[in-house]
Amino acid sequence: MTAAAKAAKRPEKTILRALAGERLTTPPIWMMRQAGRYLPEYRATRAQAGDFLSLCYNPELAAEVTLQPIRRYGFDAAILFADILLVPQALGADLWFVTGEGPRLSTISDQPGVDALKPTDAIHDTLSPVYETVKLLARELPVETTLIGFAGAPWTVATYMIAGRGTPDQAPAHALREGAPEVFDALMARITEATIEYLSMQIEAGAEVVKIFDSWAGSLKGEAFQRYALKPAREIIAALKARHPGIPVIAFPREAGDGYIGFANATGADCVAIDNSVSPEWAAKHVQVDGCVQGNLASSHMVSGGQALVEATERVVRAFRSGPHIFNLGHGITPDADPENVALMVETVRSLRA
Ligand code: CP3
User: Does the beta carbon of 79 lie inside 6 Å of ligand 1?
Assistant: First the structure.
């Protein structure tokens, strides 16, 4: 089918309708980390690519793993297969993944370290295969499936660039922001600028929605949350909205707690993704009042399954049924999840009439 024929046939996609503020009888559904190690077909394609980063930079194979969960479960959205740490790599950081342990990066702790980063324009040299993946997906996805692009939020990306790895409490990043605020702010500004360019290119390549993952927002409190989670999100969203009006943005300030309240209005986000440290009833009352929310089933149910999964899924759907809602997990699905439990979750959501 030609692109024009496909566009003419395109129904109003459910995810886009929810993001525009519509309450749907059955909430649209997708899942964080839906392409991942819990799927045997993902593990096979990753083995074919060689390793995780080679998979991220191989447009055909990255598009293939993006499509796998769509074929298996018919999710309403596909999320581009890539990683938030490709941006630091594109800015010049060394990046590698240690099997069973997670990412490792070269570290930044001072102004010369920030100054040594590559200019923003240079990121596309590294990231252009990602834009190719988006282009392939825009052509290959079923007409009803929404394509979501993404990037890490500056604070979360900075925590990895400073510590060189994931840290339980983000202590190295907190130490830098308190001990050398000018260095920290310079790094945040560089990441913010690169993120705007990266997401803009994803949109130009065909991403219909973008999501900003601030996985470590929960360790920012009070003033620091405003300054390093809320403000960069507002800057990125304002720049994207100016360049690409009409492209919805989902913000995920994970574990923000009370920081979720008013976050959409303060940043311009069209939807706030909710983790499972807050109840769906609380989030409906305090966050969904401002518009669309996404979430928030605990990903542990994808491991344990059974009647508890069914009940928890129904509880999330019911809690959010009076407003716009995209069903999702509260965080990414884990490698030990059972693909059958994912099928049970999807079936439960789709058989309920909210
Ligand atoms: O959601 C998706 O399916 C799209 C792809 C995606 C990945 N990472 C693939 C991935 C997305 C959106 C991410 C985001 C990401 N990456 C975040 C933010 C969201 C979150 O989970 O909080 C963060 C913090 C990262 C950084 C990162 N990448 C870590 C800490 C790890 C290791 C964690 C682990 O479970 O081992 C990764 C690796 C990674 N990113 C994998 C996948 C599928 C597993 C790598 C593999 O196949 O070996």
Answer: yes
**Residue 46: both structure tokens together:** 């990753």
Hey, is 271 helix, strand or coil?
Answer: strand
Q: What is the pTM of this model?
A: 0.96
Domain boundaries, the chain: 3-254
Name the residue of 46, 61, 79, 83 to mutate for ligand 1: max ligand atoms within 8 A of Cβ. Answer: 83
Find out whether the beta carbon of 81 lies less than 6 Å from any atom of ligand 1: yes
Nearest atom of ligand 1 to the alpha carbon of 80: 4
Domain 3-254 bears CATH identifier 3.40.50.2000: no
Closest C-alpha to 26, from 318, 279, 334, 262: 318
Element (DSSP H or E) covering residue 95:
strand 95-98
Contact (Cβ atoms closer than 8 angstroms) between residue 215 and residue 256 = no
Closest residue (by CA) to atom 47 of ligand 1? 52
The tens digit of pLDDT for each residue in 7-61 reads: 555 558 999 999 999 999 999 999 999 999 999 999 999 999 999 999 999 999 9
Instruction: Write phi, then psi, for 310 (nearest 5 degrees).
Output: -60, -45
